[in-house]
Amino acid sequence: MKTMHAARLIEIGKPLEIAELGIPQPSTGEILVRVRAAGICSSDIHYQDGRSKVTRLPITLGHEIAGEVAACGEGVTLFNPGDRVCLFYLITCGKCMMCCTGRDNYCKEAKMLGKNIDGGFAEYLVVPERNAFTFPDSIPFSRAALMTDAVATPFHALKRAHIQTGDDVLVIGIGGLGIHAVQIARIMGAGKVIAMDLSPEKLSLAKKVGATAVINPLEENVEKRIEEITEGRGVDVAIELIGLSRTIRQAVDSTGSGGRTVVVGICPEEMGLNPYHDLLLKERTILGSADQSRADLPTIIELVAQGRLDLSHSVSLELPLAEINRGLDILRKKEDNPVRIVVTFP
After folding, report:
1. In terms of residue numbers, what domain contains 11?
2. Which pLDDT tens digit goes with each residue over 49-101?
3. Same domain as 210, residue 87
4. Among 155, 160, 213, 233, which residue carries the largest CB count within 10 Å?
């Protein structure tokens, strides 16, 4: 049996272990993908630390994946060996009402790569062909991997916010998702895009990719600065990407009449709201946004291929699989404020 290497979570709270496993074989309708790049996400740290639960141990983590088709199972018609593909990370039934209406992130049978089933911190993995999307040679594998989550998640969230031409948008949290949210808001027609973060380096990067204004809460009053930038109206859309009750509250308070707040950050705490004063009087809306849809990926790939969505600042560091624990530690400690760290394979 031919073998491969994979980074496995064996025990919660412990480093990942590099294991030698058999290379999986594709069944009918599946493809074998030779992984070339896999992004390290904060979710991977949450799984390792036990803050979010994986459904089995041991498991191979990693859900931001790009690679090449290595082999095709019987009945595969969309791909050939050698095709460059990035992967939608939810394995769904493809038949239910949710899947058939573009809401496959709510499929009751959905299983997430790197959480419920083995993911992309491995040299190979098998997925249904419907989970793969081709991308051109002009997009490096390390950037293509990020399109599947770090880009797709804020894209899906801002699409839910129904940005109108000229809307003012506040992006709270300029990390691996926020840096792309700034650009996506501009592409969707936003007028002013305000980036908010505690890191001067990340705010500087936000300006480079299109933020028209930045706010550092450690240095200025957020409420007064929002009023100043929007001439007292408040923002039309606020997207919260951190997952703290106080920043979600800040997002809601920053919106004006008819404002929409989209919550993406995972927050386990409760947050008090007064329905009359906080929502009804100003006709505000609060939306949740979970993951993304398969339908989002073709548009994202096209935007990146055209150069309208710039991912040249998105990959802070590339590491081999053998150094995956170093990458997780760098992200956990926020050393040098990485946007995304990517595991790459030769």
Report:
1. 3-139+311-344
2. 998 899 999 999 999 999 999 999 999 999 999 999 999 999 999 999 999 99
3. no
4. 155
